[in-house]
Amino acid sequence: MLTVENLRVSYDRIAALHGISFHVEEGEIVCIIGANGAGKSTTLRAISRLVPAEPGSKITFRGENLLRYPPEKVVSQLGISHVPEGRRLFDNLTVMENLRLAAFARKDHQQIERDLERVFSIFPRLKERITQKAGTLSGGEQQMLAVGRAFMSGRRMMLLDEPSMGLAPLLMMGVFEALGELNKEGTTILLVEQNARMALKFAQRGYVLENGRLVLAGTSQELLDNPDVKKAYLGG
Amino acid sequence: MAYLLQHVVNALQWGSFYALIALGYSMVYSVLMLFNFAHGDIFMVGAYIGLFVATGLLALGSAGAVALPNWAVLVLTLILAMALTSVVGMLVERVGYRPLRRAPRASAALTGLMIGITFETLNLALLGAKRRSFPALIETTSYQVAGVSITNTKIMIVVISLLLMLALDQFVRRTKWGMAMRAMAVDIFVVPLMGVPINTMAALTFALGSGLAAVAGVFFGQAYPVLEPYMGMLVGWKAFVAAILGGRGSVLGAALAGFLLGFIEIFVAVVFPSTLRDLIAYSVILLILTFRPYGFFGEPYSARLRL
Ligand SMILES: Nc1ncnc2c1ncn2[C@@H]1O[C@H](COP(=O)(O)OP(=O)(O)OP(=O)(O)O)[C@@H](O)[C@H]1O
Ligand SMILES: [Mg+2]
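^ Those are the sequences you sent over. The predicted structure of the assembly is below.
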């Protein structure tokens, strides 16, 4: 479904990704793990077209050249949503406005209403807070809203940047459970995590990113059993 | 008493100009983190566009082609001036500011000043240094209410200005475009992830602000019927002050601050010699800002400045 080949990205001429290649198949949950500054967020940003890919990079989505699309169309036409690092909610907008804004480009008004109901059935806490400003939500509620927002914007594929960050274990389980449900309903998931154990338990396959290069790939079980991964990412 | 009331009426009209112009400054600042220092000159361009549309329509009338009643000329002038000036505003955004979206803010500010000077110089070059008078489109009638003289022109200016501000406020609060504008004010980097085309939003923001400036220009032409190439400078700077005073991202704030500025200026001139007017008026503003550094209704949410 998504194929990335030789992806290179630089910030102000300093390379962050040195030509990485990977793929995600329809219906899969795939994770990319790596340490701080490895380039995980950059990878997702390149797919969302928030940062430009260098010439020679190739990204195809369902057979189409994704790099031809501007960021808003990656969402509205290709159906790829992105939960950015640090959630990045619109603090001055209410919960409802955040969700509605995510449906900005959609014309299927009846489906939008049904999707809103779906978000509220997955996260009932949000429904109680629809008129509350997003900036005043608790960390866990904010993460729910970030996932709900992505659900409203595009659902073929979801890019998730550290959804577990700052969440208590119980809340984290809740968010991952919800994500698992969305996946069963047909959303392909590409997850990026520092919390490698959690990510590998959730995903079917994984990649390991180090200093802008993919150094390992395998099924989650293979990676969990790999001695290098154990030492570097699973605490021994 | 009647004497003071008379000044209230004048202050309302004068404040309408500041408020209409301040809204353009305020929206662009809020949505794009940018002071559009060409905005005062966009007001001037709007006034001239209005002048040409109005004289054109009147000429059509006297040539016997289509003789429109004057109120219709005024309505058409307002609509066409808004539309054409919006196009000018969108061009300014497209040519001047879009290439600098990621550049340091100082470059954008310089560009704005440059664009303003370009407009003034172009006006001088194309139209010569003479002042032009704006044709009066409504026959002035004066009403005496409790010893205060109110003209129909003043009523129209204040009422239409208020209605437009109200409309803008509702647009920003209730429509999805308004929602996107408010979202851009706090995090322009992730707005595209909502499927929102930010270039279109930037163009829309400039179009709205320039349209309101054009209305101010046409009304200015009705109230003080003389236009000159530098008419936008001082008014523009003062409207900028009103935008800051209103608070980032607040339509209500910019409008209120515009009117407040009108009141302060007019009433300072009642008490003090008019040569000291601006000095005293802006000292008052400065004083207000020391107590409310974010203005009247500035959002407490700060903008995220990187990805
Ligand atoms: N906006 C930016 N401007 C300049 N350099 C950046 C920017 N964002 C990231 N970088 C650099 O690119 C490299 C990769 O960063 P990235 O954010 O992709 O890492 P990450 O794997 O997501 O790290 P973390 O786990 O800490 O979120 C880092 O060296 C970082 O300093
Ligand atoms: Mg990251």
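Residues 19-229 of chain B form one domain. DSSP finds ten helices and four strands in chain B.

Shout if you want it in another format.
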